[in-house]
């Protein structure tokens, strides 16, 4: 069924000057990157000679210098003539304000009064009692009694930090178990402990020998003249071969 169609597919021939083929070639030339940069590649192959004293280079340098000098002095040229000169620094409000701010920010001037007055100490008569009270307050102070752990300021995965943490853990475990070191090596018998006594009581409750008394363990004496005993004896004599 498809044999004729398969034979026709291999024998189709399109003329190269058809409008569709020409349009496809024109589109390929338009979108070709190689053709797009062909002129630039050929120009690069020819080379160029650009000397430092060439006219375009010198013109560009002069333009750059002119623009740089203009930008540098632009603010100055705008503000030129806006200021009225002052005879001294005290006559200029901005300079006085800046000096005042600098004096306020100066740490030496800020602490001058404190440094002058801290050497003028008047010790009262009860200085010893005050010192004793301070020492007593230090002893009973909860802040000094408790020493909180410091905050980590380094990376937690550093080797020295990991080693320090292990050392802290070992030291903490040793201090925690220090009160039990005197028990190390001391022998102890389990006789009389709670668990042993409990096990013994449970064994006594479950012991069948103590709970029930076997009949063969009971001591008794039978009556010799009982009717059943006499009848048994007679029967035994009758059945005896002798």
TrEMBL record:
What PROSITE patterns does the entry give? Answer: NEBULIN
Is the keyword Repeat in the record?
yes
Can you list the GO cellular component terms from the UniProt entry?
Answer: Z disc
InterPro entries xref list: NEBU/NEBL, Nebulin-like, Nebulin_repeat
Molecular function (Gene Ontology), one example = actin filament binding
Question: Which stretches are transmembrane?
Answer: none
Keywords noted in UniProt: Actin-binding, Repeat
Sorted alphabetically, the Gene Ontology BP terms of this entry are: cardiac muscle thin filament assembly
Has keyword S-adenosyl-L-methionine? no
Q: Which SMART domains match?
A: NEBU
Query: Could you tell me which PANTHER family the record lists for this protein?
Result: NEBULIN (PTHR11039:SF37)
Q: What is this protein called?
A: NEBU protein
* Organism from which the protein derives: Trogon melanurus (Black-tailed trogon)
